[in-house]
Amino acid sequence: MDESITATCIAPINIAVIKYWGKRDDKLILPVNDSISGTLSTDQLCAKTTISASPTYTETKFWLNGIEGDYKTNLRMKNVIKTMKKLAKKKSPKNKALKWKLHICSVNNFPTAAGLASSAAGYSCLVYTLAQLYGIENEDLTPIARLGSGSACRSLDGGFVHWMKGISPTGEDSVAVQLCDENYWPELRVLIIVVNEAKKSVSSTNGMSLTSTTSELFNYRIMKCVPERIRAMKKAIAERNFKDFGELTMKDSNQFHACCLDAFPPCVYMSDVSHRMAAIVHGYNKNAGETCVAYTFDAGPNVCVYLLEKEVRRFVTMLAAFFPCDAYDEGKFVRGIPIKYL
Ligand code: DP6
């Protein structure tokens, strides 16, 4: 009799409006600052993971987008699996599946490692799928997702999520909490504009380490700006105040990239097209007489635009006028995503 068990889940990406950048502990992935993000719906950009556990498997293996990875050297994945098994054992000590090796298959339906939060979707999906596989319910999985990739802890909930840095050296208070759910601001949309699908040259992990050790601006950001912005962003979300929300989002993205450029050697994530996009958004807002569109850039050149639904058509039409057809195609490059978790 085949005793193997299998679970499949999908998980969304999240786009930070106050960015996480810098760690106080590299192994436990504890951040130096709080961050806030919006979780996108899973219908367009997501990771899908299938895990099976079987007494017949001789080793744990994983495949990402059909290509086998090296599990033995993947310390983060090993740490996540070890921690999940420990939790599962505490809940049901007799679960024999905990002794079995795993086969893990994950696919992203968007460019992997191009600064589009692929690790956030991937690790939140890994953790959630393992929880299904081992029957773990009613547990806060965010500190375990965090062990895979910091931003992953914000993808386990819909709506807006606040990841608190915590102060404990062991990290138990570094958890993500939902500020409001996916139905809270129904008019909000995110456009993901892929300007370059190539893998980024400096990973987030290396970029944040370099920035925190060499940038002088970085301390100012962490000590002064981020705490104030976290408070202001929570207020803007609570009031559904798009103007404040959008301005804080753009300012925080700009400051995060300024710190990256202040690293030595500098980490350059935004491209000329990214800068043009930012200028277009500012021009658009000036024309409109108010902030109704906001850009944000993660560790890559691709643009995430937060805006209200009533603005989408006008903004996308305007964008098409700026970018020639070979650089812009509504079907392929721009997707309007209602911000919710399904
Ligand atoms: C710019 O979560 O990818 O997207 O914890 O080292 O895996 P690691 O980094 P990661 O960093 C994401 C950085 C960011 C900002 C954010 O999502 O808050």
From TrEMBL:
Residues 11-176 form the Diphosphomevalonate decarboxylase-like N-terminal domain. One of its GO terms (molecular function) is diphosphomevalonate decarboxylase activity. One of its GO terms (cellular component) is cytosol. Residues 190-342 form the Mvd1 C-terminal domain. It comes from the Eukaryota. One of its GO terms (biological process) is isopentenyl diphosphate biosynthetic process, mevalonate pathway. This is Diphosphomevalonate decarboxylase. The lineage of its organism: Eukaryota, Metazoa, Ecdysozoa, Arthropoda, Hexapoda. The gene is MVD.
